[in-house]
Specification:
Blueprint lengths: L8 H6 L2 H16 L5 H16 L5 H4 L2 H13 L5 H16 L8 H4 L2 H13 L1 H12 L2 H21 L2 H5 L3 H7 L1 H41 L2 H15 L4 H5 L4 H18 L3 H18 L4 H7 L4 H21 L2 H14 L2 H7 L35
Helix pairs in contact: 2-20, 3-19, 5-17, 6-16, 8-14, 9-13, 10-13, 12-13
């Protein structure tokens, strides 16, 4: 038999036989609600009762928006992120990269073609956003610098390497062949002069060049071109195994990404923007559901009675069976019930004390009743009738 936690001589002395028998019977009654999978019936009964109860209870009756905001502030914004969380995230990311599943899984196995096509269709429909993105790209300093470098290199090489001067001016080509050494000596000064002229030309025409570049990109990436480009991209990536993509990322890269994400979250959660966003969302949720019954909310988010019962049984079952087998469940039931059965109130109900005669207050005697005088009746003489 499982050792009864809390059974000390003092408690046993304080508990008479009847109380002790009631306690043990009560404990066994409670335990029987968990034995032989009877807990499934208990869970079913309690969840059913809760779902009946929430039909009569509105969200605002059990919690307020201010309470939810307080929970978010304490547990999302202010709660320190434990080091074990980031460590575990790093270890699990490495497991993902090294998984053997990557070698036998292609991108198309986890990302359906229909989903990809839906994304492309959405990009096609975002014409304003697409044009704005192109505009921001071509007007950036990086793009201006790059296009200047490309133009400068191209024009310079064309002028110097193609020998357009020799080709255009009669007799220069023969002169260069006869006096190649002399020409080479003067090439450096010529190259410097060409560079200055080209740079001056590019700088004076850069704004027009960028404007034409923007127009060209917008015209190029029209709806048809985007669809065709999307098709080409899909054909080139769909059948590749995930291991080919992950091969370019090592463990250190993943750790760096996690650290970057961690640092971003620590900063972002403290911003006024994040506070403003989650406050608006909570207020909106209570505006929509605050005056509605809880069962309506559960139905809207897809939570059913059968789902809750099934998931609770699945999650709790192993824990209950283990707690039963090692006696922990009995310990806790006993600890709760003993507290009641050892109480003075329980003792008074189970074994009320009999009041002793000495302490009993004497009852007041009722005053003697006054007897009414009886009327005298003549006695009959013997023999006379």
């Amino acid at each position: 038999m499982t050792k009864k936690t809390g059974d000390t001589p003092n408690k046993e002395m304080a508990m008479n036989d009847l109380t002790h028998q009631l306690l043990e019977a009560h404990i066994q009654h409670e335990l029987n609600r968990f034995k032989d999978e009877a807990y499934k019936r208990t869970i079913d009964e309690e969840v059913t009762a809760i779902f009946e109860w929430v039909k009569k209870i509105k969200l605002k009756d059990v919690i307020t928006s201010e309470q939810i905001l307080g929970i978010i502030k304490r547990n999302v914004v202010e709660l320190p992120v434990a080091g074990g969380v980031t460590e575990l995230a790093g270890e699990m990311s490495q497991k993902v990269l090294a998984s053997s599943q990557n070698k036998k899984t292609a991108l198309e196995d986890i990302f359906a073609r229909k989903q990809y096509d839906d994304i492309i269709d959405k990009v096609v429909g975002l014409k304003t956003a697409r044009n704005d993105l192109i505009h921001r790209l071509v007007t950036s300093s990086a793009y201006s610098q790059q296009i200047s470098e490309v133009l400068f290199t191209g024009i310079k090489e064309y002028i110097l390497e193609e020998n357009i001067i020799a080709k255009k001016v009669p007799g220069v080509s023969s002169l260069i062949k006869m006096g190649k050494f002399a020409v080479n000596k003067t090439m450096h000064s010529l190259e410097v002069a060409v560079e200055n002229k080209v740079k001056s030309y590019i700088e004076s025409n850069l704004e027009n060049t960028i404007r034409r570049s923007e127009k060209s990109l917008i015209n190029y990436f029209d709806e048809t071109r985007i669809v065709d480009t999307g098709e080409e991209i899909w054909e080139s990536i769909a059948e590749k195994k995930l291991s080919e993509y992950f091969s370019t990322i090592d463990d250190n890269d993943m750790e760096d990404f996690i650290v970057i994400g961690y640092d971003f979250w620590l900063h972002f959660r403290k911003t006024k923007y994040f506070k403003g966003i989650y406050t608006e969302l909570v207020k909106y949720f209570f505006k929509k559901y605050g005056n509605r019954e809880l069962d309506v909310i559960l139905e809207d988010i897809g939570v059913t009675e059968e789902m809750v019962i099934g998931e609770l049984i699945e999650i709790i079952a192993p824990g209950i069976e283990k707690a039963l087998s090692i006696g922990y469940l009995e310990e806790r039931i006993r600890a709760r019930l003993e507290d009641f059965y050892l109480s003075k109130k329980a003792a008074a109900l189970i074994s009320p004390k009999k009041t002793s005669p000495e302490k009993t207050s004497p009852k007041k005697k009722a005053p003697p009743k006054t007897k009414k005088p009886k009327k005298a009746t003549p006695k009959l003489q013997k023999g006379k009738r």
